[in-house]
Specification:
Elements lengths: L1 E6 L5 H9 L4 E7 L3 H10 L4 E3 L2 H6 L5 E4 L3 H13 L3 E5 L6 H13 L4 E4 L6 H12 L5 E11 L8 H17 L5 E7 L9 E7 L5 E7 L1 E13 L3 E5 L7 E9 L13 E8 L8 H15 L7 H19 L5 E2 L2
Parallel strand pairs: 1-2, 1-4, 2-3, 4-5, 5-6, 7-10
Antiparallel strand pairs: 7-11, 8-9, 8-15, 9-10, 11-12, 12-13, 13-14
Helix pairs in contact: 1-8, 4-5, 5-9, 6-7, 7-9
Length: 336
C-alpha cells in the first residue's frame, strides 16, 4: 500500500484525488492547497483524508511515498524538485515545467535518486488514441502522411501560459506517441486578443525528417467545443472526435493513387478510392484512472511510464520552439 499526497485541489486536482482514491493499492493520505475553502470542500467529500496549507508538511512526512502535483505551471519545477529531493515519486500535471532546462533538472534528480517522474499526458491513455496507434503499427493505414488536430473552445483562459502551452500540449503528446518520432523543426503563428501579452489562438506546424507533417490548431475564443484529430495515410484515414459520446473513431477506406508510370501528361490520371467507413467498438475506460494506475505500477516495478519525464521534456522543447517562432513571425525553429 502506497501513501500518496496531492498538491493543488483547484480545477484539476480533485480529478486526481478521485482517481487515486479509486485505486486499490493506494491510500490518499493528505491534500495540500493554499485555499482553505478548497481544502474544506475536499474534506467534506472525503472525510478520511488529512488537509494542510503547508507544503512542508508533505516533505517532512516520511510515510508519504509519492506526490501528485496539480498547480500552475510556473510552480511545477519548484514543487517537483522539492518532492524529488525529499525522496518521493512525483507525478506532475502537464506541461512538466516552464522550460526544457527545468525539465532536465527534474529528470536528473529523479535518475540520481531512482525515483519515478511522470507527467500528466492523459490523452495517450485514452482508448481511441491507443486504438489509432494499433492501426498505424499494423500497417492498415499505410504510410502516415500527416496529422491534423484541432482543440478549440471558449475559455478557460490561463494567466501564466498561452493557449499553446495549455491546449496544444495534449496534441503534441498525442502526435509524438502515435508517430514515435520527434520533429526537426517547428513553426507557430498566433494572436493575443483578450490579454495583449498571452496568445489565445495559435497554429503550430511540425516538420519531421520523414515525409510526415503535423498541424495543431488551438483556441480559447472559439464558439464551438472541438477536439478532433485527423490521421491521413496512404491506404486509409482516421478521424478521432473526442466530443462524440460513442463513435469517437471513424476509419475511412479512402485514398488517392497516382499511376505507377506514364508517357504523356494525358495519360497521367489520379485515381480516387472511396470505400466503407468503419466505426470500431472501444471499451469505455477513464483515461485519468489508467494514467494514475500507470504511475503506481511504475513505482512498483521500476518500469518506464508512457508519459515519463523524458516524454515531458520533448513536449516542452516543442512548446519553447513554438514560443520562439511566435516572436519571429512564424519562422521555422530548428530542434536539436
Amino acid at each position: 500500500m502506497f501513501n500518496l499526497a496531492v498538491i493543488g485541489c483547484g480545477y484539476w486536482g480533485p480529478n486526481l484525488i478521485r482517481n487515486f482514491r479509486s485505486l486499490s493499492d493506494v491510500r490518499l493520505k493528505i491534500v495540500c492547497d493554499k485555499d482553505k475553502n478548497r481544502l474544506e470542500h475536499m474534506k467534506n467529500l472525503y472525510p478520511d483524508i488529512e488537509t494542510t496549507t503547508n507544503f512542508e508538511d508533505i516533505l517532512k512526512d516520511d510515510s508519504i511515498h509519492a506526490v501528485g502535483i496539480a498547480t500552475p505551471v510556473f510552480t511545477h519545477h519548484k514543487l517537483a524538485k522539492a518532492c524529488l529531493n525529499a525522496g518521493k515519486h512525483t507525478f506532475v500535471e502537464k506541461p512538466l515545467a516552464s522550460s526544457s532546462e527545468e525539465c532536465n533538472d527534474l529528470i536528473k534528480i529523479a535518475k540520481e535518486k531512482s525515483l519515478i517522474l511522470m507527467v500528466g499526458h492523459v490523452f495517450i491513455y485514452t482508448p481511441p488514441v491507443i486504438a489509432i496507434k494499433e492501426y498505424i503499427k499494423s500497417g492498415e493505414l499505410g504510410d502516415v502522411f500527416y496529422i491534423s488536430t484541432r482543440r478549440l473552445n471558449l475559455g478557460l483562459f490561463q494567466k501564466d501560459i498561452n493557449v499553446a502551452w495549455d491546449l496544444a500540449t495534449h496534441d503534441i503528446a498525442i502526435i509524438l506517441y502515435l508517430l514515435e518520432e520527434n520533429p526537426v523543426s517547428v513553426n507557430c503563428q498566433g494572436k493575443a486578443h483578450i490579454n495583449p501579452n498571452i496568445e489565445d489562438i495559435t497554429t503550430i506546424s511540425l516538420n519531421f525528417n520523414s515525409t510526415r507533417y503535423a498541424t495543431i490548431q488551438s483556441s480559447w475564443i472559439d464558439p464551438h467545443k472541438i477536439r478532433d484529430v485527423t490521421i491521413v495515410g496512404s491506404k486509409k484515414m482516421i478521424v478521432y472526435d473526442d466530443t462524440h459520446p460513442l463513435e469517437k473513431i471513424k476509419v475511412f477506406d479512402k485514398r488517392v493513387l497516382a499511376p505507377p508510370h506514364y508517357d504523356t501528361f494525358a495519360e497521367f490520371q489520379y485515381s480516387y478510392h472511396y470505400g466503407d467507413i468503419h466505426i470500431p467498438y472501444l471499451k469505455q475506460v477513464e483515461p485519468l484512472k489508467a494514467e494514475c494506475q500507470d504511475f503506481i505500477d511504475c513505482i512498483k516495478t521500476g518500469k518506464k511510464s508512457l508519459a515519463s519525464g523524458e516524454n515531458g521534456l520533448e513536449v516542452v522543447k516543442i512548446l519553447e520552439a513554438a514560443n520562439k517562432s511566435l516572436k519571429e513571425n512564424g519562422g521555422p525553429i530548428q530542434l536539436k
